[in-house]
Amino acid sequence: MSAPRQSCLFILSSSNEGVTAQSFLQAYNIISSNFSVQLASPGGKHIEYINQEENSRRWFNEFRAKSNSNPIALETVDAARYTALVIPDSPGATRDLHTDTDLKQILQHFVKEKKPICAIGMGVAGLFPALGKDGHWCFEDYSMTCTSVFELARNADFPSLPVIPEEFIRDNCAKYSCSGEVDSVHVIIDRHLITGQNQQSTITAVQNLILMCSQNSVNSS
Question: Is CB count within 10 Å lower at the N or C end of the chain?
């Protein structure tokens, strides 16, 4: 009898600024071929997938017709059920996920159990609620990347962002790096954490998540 499929939790912003369509589509297609996928958002609210192109628009129209396209609320998530966690590129993450207390509990479990986490671009802001009992950030000594200030500064909403991910990482004692060329693929792996700099890094980041989970399965067998 084959082993049951592992489960992966996708954390998605429900703010109007939304989730980058291409990053979600790429991550979902790769992960769902290897895992059972569960979507979750603050309050289980509707997800706005932004910057859709013609091909991705057709994909999302078909996807929304499926029952598993509806996210559950973060407060209902039992983190122990999931092998891995993914936060795709999400401009909205700086509006809601970065201070979400329910997400904090989920992240604390994943850090404690050293379960694989993959966060991409602005979705890295979804890691920010993970404060330990001592008030320190759980990822304070990790090496990581996220959307760079240079990439963000091109956006009209840059001055109104509640938090600048690159600055948060540096201010909370983690080690930040980015590619010397904007919009280039840049992925960092440190222990059980995989971070991608931008939307363009999605495929490489989630492929490494698959490899990490496979290696963990081999080591635990």
Answer: N
